[in-house]
Amino acid sequence: MKKLATALLTLGLTFSVNAELIFEQVSVRLMPNSQKNTAAFMKITNQSDATVKLIEIRSNISETAEFHTHIMQDDMAMMQKMDQLIIPANQTVILESGGRHIMLLNLKQDWAKQGEAEIIFRDAQQKRYEVHAPIEAAHQMHHHQHQHHNH
Ligand SMILES: [Cu+2]
């Protein structure tokens, strides 16, 4: 009972702290065991009238986590680390495959077995945001697109 009460208390606090940002369509891409890194995708909506700067990110399934974007270099799409992710006031930022995303680096042993990853953000005001992301195979939509191109 004590454990449950503590859990509920933690949950309540998390919600009140999280009110500015809403995290939706959260997922971590399932990768074969041989891969050392994977990516996380989500929609982040800033409900407040102030810009939120996410300056720190970590996860329980990898040693490190980074915000990434893609840049073109010599006609090649390259990933580049961003020091922060800015969520403008009253706007939604989409982290998606081929665009800005979260990179989870040096995955821990058996990381995919839990089926869910914890991703923790901290903003410039030292507010903490905790997100639980299901670990899923790449979206079905991509398969449809590839099949379409093949025919
Ligand atoms: Cu990346």
Offer a quick outline of the entry.
19% of the residues lie in helices and 50% in strands.
Order of helices and strands: HEEEEEEEEEEH
Rg over CA atoms, rounded to whole Å, is: 17 Å
- Helical proportion? 10-25%
* Count of helical stretches: 2
CATH topological fold name? Immunoglobulin-like
For the secondary structure, the number of strands is: 10
Please tell me what the overall shape is. Answer: globular
Summarize model confidence as the mean pLDDT. 85
Calculate the terminal CA-CA distance, rounded to whole Å. Answer: 59 Å
Largest sheet: 10 strands, mixed
Task: Describe, in plain words, how this protein is organized in 3D.
The protein is α+β, with helices and mostly antiparallel strands and 151 residues long. It has a single domain, classed as Immunoglobulin-like (Sandwich), CATH 2.60.40. It has two helices and ten strands, in the order αββββββββββα. It has helices at 2-18, 140-150; strands at 21-29, 38-46, 52-59, 62-73, 76-82, 85-87, 92-95, 101-107, 116-123, 128-136. β1 (21-29) and β2 (38-46) form a beta hairpin. It is globular. The chain starts with a helix and ends with a helix. Copper (II) ion is lined by residues 39, 68, 79, 101, 103.
